[in-house]
Amino acid sequence: MIPLRRSLLSVRREVLEDGTIRLHFTASTATPDRYQDIIDQASWRLDNYRMNPVVMLDHDYRVEKVVGRGEVAIVDGALDLVPTWDLESPHGPMVAGMVDRGTVSAVSVGFLPGKSVPRASLPKEDPRCGERGWVYFDCDLLEVSVVAVPANPEALAAKGAAKDWPPAASVSVGSVVDEVLRLLREMDALPKNPESAESGLDRYFPPKDR
For every one of its 210 residues, what pLDDT tens digit does the chain have, with 9 covering 90 and above? Predict the structure, then answer.
């Protein structure tokens, strides 16, 4: 199964009693993203992540791209991440400095979806009902990455950035793969169930080419 990636831009700074600052990233919410997908926040599966709580750079899974560790919890109905930067790693000091200066404020979750339900199949009175997109349940969190541009335009607007940025501005490998899968499903070229999408994707992109 291909991991999915969803990005948000939200950082909160908590001042502790000793005067130190503790960062909180809102890593995921139940708001529909630009793909019109929704992640159910109550059913996040966090045990595997807590056994290997890596904070990565740009979803690059090479060990030198680990920039820290993360503590995760569901807080006020959203996935909250508290990072501890590894200042002895190759990229940790750079990322810590950019976040501290406010140059970078976005994180992106990499996860394996569990159960998935088309939003169009939900009862009309369900606030998650919609013409497009899926609701993902029981998502297994794999990693959290610091990224330059979040994939969620609504999150950008929340920080006062331009509301009319084109979706193409979010250029990450995960975002491109997700968009290709969505378009192929719309053309009935892939199974409607994302859980079986990987085998269908092999027809178009052999594993050796990915």
Answer: 556 655 555 666 666 666 556 788 888 888 888 788 999 999 999 999 999 999 999 999 999 999 999 999 999 898 999 999 999 999 999 999 998 888 888 888 899 989 999 999 999 999 999 999 999 999 999 999 998 876 554 333 233 333 333 333 333 445 555 655 665 566 665 555 655 545 544 544 444 444
Across the chain, the runs of DSSP E, i.e. the strands, are: 4-9, 11-15, 21-28, 38-39, 54-57, 66-75, 78-85, 106-112, 116-118, 134-136, 140-147
Which residue is associated with the tokens 């940790």? 92
Q: How far is the C-alpha of 144 from the C-alpha of 4, rounded, in Å?
A: 12
d(CA 116, CA 138): 9
Query: Residue 184 contacts by C-beta under 8 Å, 6 or more apart in sequence?
Result: 190, 200, 201, 204
State the Cα–Cα distance between residues 9 and 18, nearest whole angstrom.
27
CB 203 within 8 A of CB 184: no
Name the residue type at position 151.
Answer: A
